[in-house]
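We store amino acids, tokens; thus:
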Amino acid sequence: MNLLRLKVVLAAIEIDETAVTTLRTASALAAAAGARLDLVHVVHAARDDDARESKKRGEQAVRGLLSRAGIDVDNTPLHVLAGDAAHSIRVLADKIRADVVVLGPHRQEIDRGNRLGSTALAIVTASWAPCLIVTERMRLPLERVLVPVDLSDTARGALVVGLSWASALRSQRSDTDPGVRLTALYADQSSSERGTAPVPQLEAELMHVRAAAGTWSGVAIEGPEIVPGDPATVIAAYATEQPVGLIVMGTRGLGLDTPGRLGSVAGDVANRVDTPILLVPPAVWQAHADAW
């Protein structure tokens, strides 16, 4: 199991009031990880002449947002592209080898009760890099990471990613005082009472992760925390009641679920909480699950 190495953070920017939060989170994440910050903004235009003018206006608008966010305009790579947003962002992320794509919610979608717009949805279900969805600025260093588990390969891969992020972005304390805690949360839909005996398979899987992590990770792995109820409700309530700085969840797609959809639980949780959510796409969690 390897430590997380973020080399390139790609922030996808919409021209709206949520962009400053996205920019500040992406900038702080890049600084904490010693990574390069790249920005991308996609414009829509039917003709080449329209595209050139739209890209010019888009670049000016993004530079204004950079100034508001306190980010160095001249030393931050900015990619202004024309075309389909989801496809353009995925292609660019692959080209520059982005380790994470940071996305904010679209204002129109928030007004309709959704945190994930169609562009974000299309990216996180078919990306080769995890996608960080931020509604509020991410608090760094991380102190508590929440990873829902359910004995699936999706959850196993997300658990490995969650451990890596927790270790890389924790506060530096001591071996006896871990700077961050990772909580494995299991929603027990078959039980109506808290305190159900832990599922043996969950205990075994967490023991596997603890053994693989050893002492190098600096992460206290807690759980499994077993709470009765449907998964989306349990996860959202836990993240709201506890000081959770990051939720890590696997997503579905690429033939594993209805094309273009998140798993229903991940999508529901994303629409309920303000906590930053790291969505791990199939290309990432499957590789970790195979190695498991």
User: Anything to note?
Assistant: The chain is about 40% helix and 20% strand. Residues 235 and 269 are 7 Å apart (CA to CA). The longest strand covers residues 219-228. Strands lie at 8-12, 36-43, 78-82, 100-103, 131-133, 144-148, 180-188, 219-228, 246-250, 277-280.
